[in-house]
Design a protein that fits this description.
two-stranded antiparallel ribbon, elongated, 29 helices, disordered C terminus, DNA-binding, mainly alpha, 636 residues
Length: 636
Amino acid sequence: MHHMKKYFTEGLIQFTILLSLIGVRVDVDTYFSGYFSPLIETDGGPSSAFIQTPFHHYRDTAAGHQVHPKCPELDYFFTSRRLLNEVRALGSPARFPTRVSAWLVHLVPDDGSDVSEPHDLSGDPDDEDVNTENHREESDHRTGEGFGRSVSQDCTVSRPCCAAGELSKEETLLKQENEEEDEKDERGQEETSPASLNQLTQSSALEQEDLLGSTLPPPLSGLELSPQWQDFLSEFDDFDSMVPQRMSDLEADLPNPISYDVSLQDAMVTRGDSANCRPASSRAPLFRLESTNSSHSVPPQTSAGAIPSSLFCLSGNSSRNETSPTQMGGFLDEAVFEHINMLDLGNLGTIDPQMLDGIQSEMDTPWLEDSDSGLSLESSSRSAASPSTSSDSFCEDEGGATGYSSEVESLSSKGGACAAAYRDWSPVNLLDNIWHDHTYSAPQAQNSTSPSWITTIKQEVMSEDESEPEEISRDERRVQALGLQFSAFQIVNMPVENFLELLDRQNLSGSEVTLLRDVRRRGKNKLAAQNCRKRKLDAIMGLQGEVEGLAVQRDALLRQRAHTAKALSAAAEHFEALSRTVLSHIRDEYGHPLNPENYTLHCSANGRVMVQPRTNTTSRTMTGSKTVKRKKVKKP
DNA sequence: GAGGTCTGTCATCGG
DNA sequence: CACCGATGACAGACC
């Protein structure tokens, strides 16, 4: 029996090996765990979602409990999850939708395997690391191509907020997790993608080859080709000089994409309007543009309020990363700037603080409510310890306040006259003056004779704040000492005509008049200071958004540049192939076929196609073909 | 106690 | 010229 068991086990092992050879994966652990069948289709490697995703864990979640391992919607399920993760990784929505031309998308070869993946077919184990690197890089390109295709569908796309160079570990893991699914999607989309340049050139090559093979006239003095062929060649006349440069730039720039730590959000002062700001944890990836070769390690979160010194110094980062300036110069070349100019960035400097102020004021009223009491609604914790509130003297701690002395205390009996003098002042006007400025706090209703609307305002503020009874500010105390009916808030917000009338009709001394003027001036200036600081914050937020948008656009431009370089490279190779095909049909004056290694085609400005001998340099890169001395070849 | 932050206040400028 | 808003600078309170 034991012998039979041994044979049975060995047979199972062999059977398992056979199954693995034909592409069926045997998951024994899963079988023992009893979740589902151990046989899983691998379909050419670890492309299955079962392998790449912790399905056992995910199945127990609320989102995955309905998914059966053999459910046909499983791919859709994991695709949805992948898309959800990508959307989450994007961060905040892009502020600047990038408009990309569809022709560029069509120009991008989808597979590019015939151009840049010869090493994949070599199977050289020494190149395994290189292949892995290239595979990841191409994976990124493909991701960008997928994005490009989505662009081609609607021409206007909100760029994802995955900033360039933020290929963080999370994103890398996510990409590795979904790499196979992306490739699967790529294959599916390639079938339905529009004709790429690759296909276009191939079809053109076949067409031209047939054309040349059948009706090519003898090139006696200058090769005469069909207009189509000449047009095609004229398109790639300068590719030979462009492609190596582009590719060299690409190779030099892409591995070190971004090295600038932009953390404007961290510069924001965390206060009442912090609700509008995203958490630092969520926004960190957007601005943590780390270079892969950067030795400068930045703490994950800088302290709030501390603007990094490198914030606006894009070119001043050389002390931290010496390669950065050149990289920036390489990235933001003229073409990039031209593209940026086309992307509606002209209004960067036209941020409307009033607009931001208006939008912001609807959401962040708390920061207005925690100001001083009376005029300023000062916070209770602060006011409790404030010396100004702990002292009864008006002269203490004046801090430069002018025109006030303690003698105003003796004038409190004049309040009745003041109130009588200002019965003609309509509270409606005061109400208008109050609510036109939403940044000012409600008054402290000092007098029992205050209008009911003032009490209502105070009660609203108190109910919203649920704060302790507010301390009276110094100016409020001074106004109370004068015995005026109106509070400091009213004095500050009343029209200037009424205020002047108040000063005139009262028998106030010079010091009292000065006091009231100072109270009014300080109150207004306090509001102005609050507005000013709020505008500063809004401006910083606006700049942060601009930086975010620029980072996103920069990422898009880099991707487009990479795609364009690949297209150029592919076109150059196709041009080379076509040239060889054409040259193979041409005979020299002795009737011998031309050696494609020694000759090349050159498209002149007048549309004529010339056969020129290659030089040593042009035999490989085709550069310098314009400088080659022309040699007319006669067809036999 | 030092440093950062917040807020009020003053001085100044321009509309 | 007075008034007012904006803003830099400073100081005090608070954490």
